[in-house]
User: Fold this.
Amino acid sequence: MKKTAIVCMLFLLLAGSVSAKDYSTYYQNLPTAMPTVSAPTIPANTVNIKDFGGIGDGITLNTEAFKKAISALNKQGGGKLVVPAGIWMTGLISLKDNIELHLEKNAIVMASPEKSLFIKEKDGKKDDKCTPLISASKRKNIAITGEGVIDGNGAYWRPVKRAKVSDTEWKTFKEMGGTETEGGKLWFPFNLKHYDNIAETPEAQEKMRTHLIRLTDCENVLVEGVTIQNSPKFHLIPTRCKNVIVDGVTIRCPWNAQNGDALDISSCKDVLIINNTIDAGDDGICMKGGAGKKGAEYGPCENILIENNAVFHAHGGFVIGSEFSGGMKNIVVRNNRFCGTDTGLRFKSGIGRGGKTENIYISDIFMTDIKDEAIIFECTYIDKKYSVKDDEKKTTVAKDAPFAPDFSDIHISNVTCRGAKTAISAHGLPGLKCVYDITIDNSTFFYTKKDIDTDETADVKITNTKFYTFEK
Assistant:
């Protein structure tokens, strides 16, 4: 017995959770039952990136230093990789089981502007898509923590629409080199002055644009405290993961960053999103569930709790869609604030990418200066490409349409909105039951154009709700 006790004590000394928080306090008085998440347990081993040749001078490439440090920790069963103050230029970082990437204050991990560093090669053949700066696949117990910054150097990747930038900004982009198309309406970071292309055309290179952090099929994930910014595309994407915590993170990029989603939770289960600050170029906190048959196979986003977050610029504060064929189930969104988003609560999808929502409860949402709709249900959504052409495809409704949106069992209450063009907008699809069993209760809206914009295709019950606007 004594020997066993000593072994147990040694194990406890060698391993410790990366977070001492009791997350159960967030799960009080939920309107639907869901399991409590827990932080991953990371062994107490610690290494410093400098010990593996890392140099944080903003010039030296640290890809090998990160690889060696993570490999050394992996051989010890895992641990914490400390990145101290400095600018750590790097290529790909791949996390392994039981690894915590910890960025100290004033540490900036920056993606190299050399795009070729993000193309993996296997058996002498290069991938046709780029890999995110930080990734993990089929891993357990991984964490990204600290007070530092992860910067995707997105200006070297993203196309820019002339209509979305000032004359000064446009001049700055052109000084980088690049390529203008469509009569000067669009700029691509193609044929830059100092960095090589990775494709034959601007359009082909744009399709290779990658995300910043992607965690796929992982279990026990924590992202805490760090700032994640300036991604080439989406910023943080847990996909098909289980037991995920995103706590106290800042996600930011220019308001006009093309496809600049902040946080996309895709086909995940048991997720806690708390205390985060978001200011992004596209959707803020977004739930996705795959498109079509493959998305349905992945299953729903399930058991998601979203609380005490602030979203500033974004296309939507809280969003479901556009693709969610796997469904959405048991989602609670409460005590959040949206200040200056295009829309507040946004439910968007279209034929071929829709699914079913169940047990969605949204309450105590505070909104100011919403550009368009405070609450919107749209069922004819199509992705907007980088192009500014006017001949975008139109969505048509086919009989027995596959994977049509099924927005139902959604219950919204205690929303306070000061300033929106339209308070509530809901439109389904002719001949299909797409928006129904929706309740909006005990809310207050100050709108500037219209209070309620719905039609016979949508069944929304609004009770105990007040609408105000300017006196005529």
